[in-house]
Design brief:
Blueprint lengths: L1 H16 L16 E2 L5 H5 L28 E16 L4 E17 L4 E22 L6 E22 L4 E20 L7 E23 L4 E11 L2 E12 L2 E14 L3 E10 L3 E11 L14 E11 L13 E9 L4 E2 L2 E2 L2 E11 L6 E12 L7 E16 L8
Antiparallel strand pairs: 1-4, 2-3, 2-19, 3-4, 4-5, 5-6, 6-7, 7-8, 7-9, 8-11, 9-10, 11-12, 12-13, 13-14, 14-17, 15-16, 17-18, 18-19
């Protein structure tokens, strides 16, 4: 029965997560929008690190190679929900916004003793903004209002496979299908004549691949050291665009199904994890994605190289080797990203502090994970916008035994 519930929860999440937005950031107007978070609740509490994390209790979608740590005859479901409160501020005004969404849904299971698999869904990017500004009226000192609005984003459905090559080495690969639409509108209201409305509807779909490895070694009886690496290979997204420009109710331009294509960047990352007595854990990740060499059409000039650094610490104060799943765990972390956007010569960087905990459900590996992230993105200089945010993530990890042989008396 619980197995059926897990599968139904995952299936419902697919429909809900693929239809919702998760941002109110003005910076989502550029590139493919605000990039989605691809980890789980445990990763988030650890400063969004996890390239080298392996566990038989928690799922880790940061690195597909981690799937080989799933116990045999297990079915795991992991579902995450985000709530984000953001203060947007420039030199003149300030506004507060709140949004929330299902942020990931993952179903994972071992196929045999050396091969494991998972299917997952998460937002790859989100677009959601409303910007009010003015334009100068040519030849005069007057100005008139302009409104920019955007909505939509890209969703990602993935299938991952991982193989245990040796007792210490695991390899994994993920194939992902991306799809989604973005609608970007602008309305100019000059002091004379009709309002000029521009509507861009962009539709994209495509695939890309990700690979990963993890190598785990015992440094001593109580100390385990793991290194890992990932690589996301640049893929092309094919798209079509519908452009409509109208003055009042009269269409000036109406172009349908214009072909377009964008290229995602190559991304590489490396991580390490040091665990002592299954009680203390330290993790560190570094990721680099070169958006400068990506092809986003006219937006490419606003993109840059994104370097990100992630540090986490986990502590299980009442660890019991016989009852690992009943142990509450506490986490803190920090992260810094140089950002993939470069506007007016300023790279839009961000930093954050995280904390979290796992609340186990007794006599089972099921758990509730709570994570908080408080951070800042952007700047007040160069007439840009500074975002200060607090994010709450709730995730639920459900385990079920399956493929168990029935016994008869």
């Amino acid at each position: 029965m619980r197995r059926l519930v897990s599968i139904l929860i995952f299936s419902l999440s697919v429909f809900v997560a693929s239809a919702q937005n998760n941002t109110n950031s003005p910076y989502s107007a550029f590139g493919i929008g605000e990039l989605g978070y691809t980890g789980t609740g445990r990763n988030m509490g650890l400063g969004e690190s996890g390239i080298a994390l392996r566990s038989g209790i928690f799922l880790n979608s940061t690195n597909p190679a981690s799937l080989t740590a799933i116990p045999q005859q297990s079915l795991a479901t992991d579902l995450g929900v985000n709530f984000k409160y953001t203060n947007l501020k420039n030199q003149y005004k300030s506004a507060n916004v709140l949004n929330g969404n299902i942020s990931w849904a993952t179903l994972a299971f071992p196929i045999n003793r050396t091969l494991s698999a998972s299917v997952s869904l998460n937002p790859k990017s989100s677009v959601g903004y409303t910007i009010y500004t003015t334009k100068s009226l040519e030849g005069t000192n007057a100005s008139y209002p302009v409104t920019y609005k955007g909505d939509g984003g890209l969703s990602e459905a993935s299938l991952s496979l991982a193989a245990l090559i040796t007792k210490k080495l695991s390899l994994g690969v993920t194939g992902s299908f991306l799809w989604g639409s973005m609608i970007k509108n602008s309305v100019e209201t000059p002091p004379f004549g009709s309002a000029i409305t521009r509507i861009d509807q962009l539709h994209y779909s495509g695939i890309y691949l990700k690979s990963g490895f993890q190598y785990q070694s015992k440094l001593s009886t109580n100390t385990v050291f793991t290194i890992g690496g990932i690589a996301e290979y640049s893929g092309y997204l094919d798209g079509t665009s519908d452009l409509t420009i109208s003055s009042g109710s009269t269409a000036i331009v109406d172009l349908k199904a214009q072909q377009s294509q964008i290229q995602l960047p190559f991304k590489a990352g490396a991580g390490m994890a040091l665990e002592f007595k299954s009680k203390y854990l330290v993790t560190f990740d570094y990721n680099r994605s070169d958006w400068k060499n990506a092809d986003m059409g006219s937006m490419t000039t606003k993109l840059d190289v994104n370097n990100s650094y992630h540090l986490g610490f986990e502590f299980a104060p009442k660890y019991d080797a016989q009852k690992t799943w009943q142990t509450a765990r506490y986490r803190i972390g920090a992260l810094y990203q140089t950002g993939y956007l470069n506007i007016y010569g300023t790279q839009i960087s961000s930093y954050a502090a995280t904390c979290g905990m796992t609340i186990p459900i007794k006599r089972d590996r099921n758990s509730v994970n709570i994570a908080f992230e408080a951070g800042r993105q952007g700047t007040l200089s160069d007439q840009l916008i500074r975002e200060t945010y607090v994010k709450l993530n709730l995730s639920f990890t459900l385990w079920e035994r399956w493929f168990m042989p029935r016994k008869f008396d």
